[in-house]
Amino acid sequence: MLHRTGGAQQCSIELPGAQPVSQETKPYLNHNIDNGRLISHTPGLNSLYDTFLRGRALAGRSSAAFGYRPIIDELGNAGPYEWVSWDFFHERFVNLSSGFRHHGLQPGDKVGIMLGNSIEWMLTEYACYYQCFVLVPLYESLGPGSLEQIIQETGMRAIVCGSKHISILHELSETTPSLRSLVVSGASQSELIQLSNGLSALRIHSFDSTEELGARHPIETEKLPVADDAATIVYTSGTSGRQKGVVIRHANFLASIAGVLALRDAGDMYNFSTEDCSMGFLPLAHCLGRLVTHLVIVSGGRTAFPRGDPAKLIEDLKDLQPTIFVGVPRIFNRIQDKVLSAVKMKGGLSSALFQYAYNTKKGNLGRGQLSHWLWDRVVFKPLREKFGGKLNLIVSGSAPISPETLEFLRCCFSCSVVEGYGLTETIGPTTVTLIDDIEPGNVGAPLPCAMMKLRSVAELGYTVDDKPCPRGEVLMKGGHIGGEYYCQPEATREAFTDDGWFCTGDIGTIDARGRLHIIDRKNNLFKLAQGEFIAPEHIENVFTDHFIVDQAFVYGNPLQSYLVAIIVPDEKLLTMFLQSKGIISQQAAERISLEDLCANDQVPQAVISELAIWGKAHSLRGFEIPKRIRLVATSFEDADLLTPTLKLKRRAAQAYFKDTLA
């Protein structure tokens, strides 16, 4: 049962009657729960297919459901948004699901999807739900090794992809015998015949022809999905770089949806409704992007997708006029930088007026006021209109957002900005900031479907007895959590306790109001500003395999979008490499020291270029390749940065190189 307590008071409370456990806090629940029972579902919803039916009933069958901007010329220019009704969308995904059955798929089969955000993505998702296939999202940036692992591990039977992916998937077909079919979006069947000439290992079908086949020869679903059925397997990076597939059941998604809607009904969350229009920008392969999309769907709102060109995102936003936008800090940082740079360039009275208006609104934020009767119309209205003029909710997730950027968004857009914390295993956010809490630095309280607690990590100096607030590893529990990694029982045992708590690997503290703050990581995995997970040991291992690298330390700041690497080079091999590049002569090589080489401005540039080529050749993605490096002559042993077992002491290394990493 929920009740509204209101005001800036407790955001979460200790579980009533919970018995103390050594080196753990008591579990914390959302402050709206007054009987200690977590919310697990919304009555009448037994699957994600049901969420679509609920949204259609609220909005009306002929109302607009999903939108897109058609490309009208070879330059990538787009026409205005076009919309697909709820009924027509339903008809299309039912036809598509029958087409999949004609391609040999059976209930329970794994279907990959390797597309950018689009109506085709959503049609594929719901086609899978309708026939009880299991959807496996594949990031388009995945390297061959990760793709091969996922296809092999899941026994994937078909992949929905773009024509640009045909070649690499065909190359993998010899080692992925389960994969029999590709369904290609954006190409006609005649074009595919040419593209697939000589590619006999796979049956290749166009997306449109698959839909048409299902329309001509429908195959009724054998059974509609139920809560306990697997809906999707979402892969996330492990600390070694190996992907782990989180098995997410319909019940897990339904619990998350129920938690957010319960918070909405209690007045602590944005009021999702049929009036909403969401820009589907965050990748649908990402749990946060999918969860928000399903929240809009179940509420009867509309969802539309941008063209996929980041340079044209603002243009798409202006044309769409969304009420909801979900992004990552990197996007919001760029918006902030562009706006403030433009203001600075104007100078004079215009710049002074903006700063005065901004400072006024900044002061009002402390009193809980997002809008201003004058400055919103005179100063900030043009900026809001560039983003469509109707934004009511901005959601930031996947990485920490700076207090300055939070303040900027609230002042300039006069709308609610919500930050959450979660992982793939928790279906996106498991804690969120409450709608009236504008104090930065925290990631809020558990959703009503979740509870959290801290467990001491004494070896890292974090304990639940710390003052003024307990600190420790964040553990989560609730019906929203995917409880296993597909075909990886050892990884499952490591991540989940016997009584069902998920060990996040993050270090947090819970403040006096019951809000979670993330302060460190227990393991080495971290995120960059764009929300991408980084496994530094894996990257370091790739680089230390290069002949010029003796030791490597890779660091990332979650408020930055790039990595920094500290490299201890092999002196002799570095000298030979530089000679081969014509940077130093043989005579100079005989008398120059390693310290002098590391201090030479040309040398780091040559090394970073070489390592970028090396990293790409070894399947590192672009964001995994450091954009800055520092060469150092002192070994990690001499700097006391290694443990007795020769493992890197990361916190010590971070402190040692803090000036370089800043």
From TrEMBL:
Domain named AMP-dependent synthetase/ligase is located at: 79-486
Enzyme Commission number(s): 6.2.1.3
UniProt GO cellular component terms: endoplasmic reticulum; membrane
Name of this chain's protein: Medium-chain fatty acid-CoA ligase faa2
Q: Which UniProt keywords apply?
A: ATP-binding, Ligase, Nucleotide-binding
Q: Which organism is it from?
A: Coemansia guatemalensis
Which Gene3D superfamilies would you find in this protein's record?
Answer: N-terminal domain of ligase-like
For this protein, the record's InterPro entries field holds: AMP-dep_synth/lig_dom, ANL_N_sf
Which major enzyme category is it?
ligase
Tell me the domain of life: Eukaryota
